[in-house]
Amino acid sequence: MTARPIILDVDTGVDDALAIAYAVRSPEIEVLGLTTNFGNITVEEAARNSLIVLEKLGRADVPVYQGSAQPLSRTKDEYPRHIHGEHGLGGAPLSKPSASKEEKNAVDFIIEQVRRLKKELTLVFVGPLTNLAHAVQKDPEIADLVGRVVIMGGAARHRGNVSAYAEANIHSDPEAADVVFRSGLPITMVGLDVTMKTLLPMSQMPVWREKDASLGGFFADMTEFYIRFYESAYPGIGGCGLHDPLAIGAVVKPELLETEPMHLVVELAGEELARTREVPGEKPNIDVCVKVDADGFLKHFLGRVI
Ligand code: BDR
Ligand code: CA
Questions:
Q1: Is 243 a catalytic residue?
Q2: pTM of the entire structure?
């Protein structure tokens, strides 16, 4: 089996960290690099957290490219620290990473690798779509060159998690999502329709601690914080949404998901701001994940991540 090259774009955050672990531990893919975006935390914090997580995983060889600090046309100065913790990795202790981020900008790295690998390359975005929007604006031809783009974001038929309509990654930069949705890129959307069904329960935390005191302990400290947020926001839910890991699942185990082609547009104003709205009858622009084998995914994810 030859591993499929991917670039993983993150705003490292708790579930981003779990997605990084799942990605670097999946033999079906080779992570060429992590690119970082603002979102759950600032872009500098996202790069730092990515370096910390890679080091914990023994994969400090994976390069980290810093990208966008701000949305395309808005100002972002607040971050959801009550969800992902003060520094973005929940209750895990913060350390200084030994490796450094790369000099090259994330947007240039994405363009360079799409031009080099073309259809072979898969891009996975699990934060706001700012880096990708900049990349297609700078080099529109990459939309036809790249193999596939998998995004965690949006909600086609499910309610939002920031408002009744909006999902957090799209809401953090709706104009970027609009550019991406109109670009002609071959997109698979892993949105709240499926990620709110793949829940990681608190009962897994002692299992991780027992299995590997160092990495398991780090991931449990990190994730317990996130699960506590879910339990307070959605009483009785029984775990946190494995949003970003499911985007990796869509690449390494696509048979766990069912997709439907849809035409989606992004609302850019009003009370439905950042809604990813289906327009029936228009030519489909996105393969939207509508069903997931949640038990099968959880088993696969847990079998790899620690
Ligand atoms: C998405 O928002 C972020 O908080 C998570 O990391 C995930 O990418 C879920 O809506
Ligand atoms: Ca994320």
A1: yes
A2: 0.98
